[in-house]
Predict the structure.
Amino acid sequence: MNTTRFMWRSGWITIVVVVVGLFGAWVLLNAVIGGRCDAACVVGSLSQALRLATPIAFAALCGVICERAGVVDIGIEGKMLMSAMTCYAINLFGFQVLKDSMGAEAAGSLSRLLAVGLGMLSALLLAMLHAVVSIRFKVDQIISGTVINILAIGVTGYMYRSFLAENLPAGPGTFPILNIPFLANLPVIGPILFQQKPLTYVMLILMVAVHYVLFFTPWGLRTRAVGEHPRAADTLGINVFRTRYVNVWIGGLVAGLGGAWFTLEAVDVFNPLMTNGLGFIGLAAMIFGKWNPFGALAGALIFGLGSSVTSTVSIFRPDIPSQIPQMLPYILTIIVLTGVVGRAVPPAADGQPYEK
């Protein structure tokens, strides 16, 4: 299919799915809370949905980048967890070291930026381990990803019990909301899209950038060729191993951004297992989007909306047990994975080690 037609088709499908999903959620929400969700409530819920969709979108984008090159990565959850812990520790201790010499505000800004960089680096190290084990030694990629998750749970749990569970001094807090001048004042769309925290903006920019690279650049063409037919790509002179390595590394950096969201944008604290399965939900969003960045974003937004509806219902209907609305994002995941959204076909060589 022509790449331009493919891009437009994917974009329209994304728009239709999101609009239908939002309308359906609004109708259901009003039915549950007795019609008390006015325009301000809807805008607030949609803004929160985008914020909550951010880590899911990063996880989905990591999966797209890796699997388009033929490498399955279910270790996204572990990479996000490791990054979340690293970001919290660097943000906290970096602030304590820098605040006397730079002042609290400047130290807080610098410590958060350092935390993002080192959080991404920690996720990259796990991605490099996964790449070597699955590409060089051809270990089953599902097993390798599972080991990454277990390793991250063990390391973060140990670090938390040993260093982070004590009464620590107050940190610099999370990233502030960044209002885009003029655009933030637009009705409806302004509060939703342009009154967010920095990592949400980074996620939206990355979605567009990765889509362009995958479908409109030579690197993207090589990546898709390696994921579909690596032997043919090798025959044409494409280095299959290098392409897979680089894509897995880039995917690890993106997953690191998703982990940073938990302790730099959501809350200023780290708890064991705080990623709460969002890495796996990101993989479901990737499948929903048929391994396309825009489609993955649509899936992430739907899951984010489910989480936003959960909190809204808890506010307006405290009589409903909290466990019931909390099931909604996971019910959506099951619906996606059972194929209700249509048959999703992965890249032909996805998960298959390459023998030169």
User: Anything to note?
Assistant: The domain at 44-337 is CATH 1.10.3470 (ABC transporter involved in vitamin B12 uptake, BtuC).
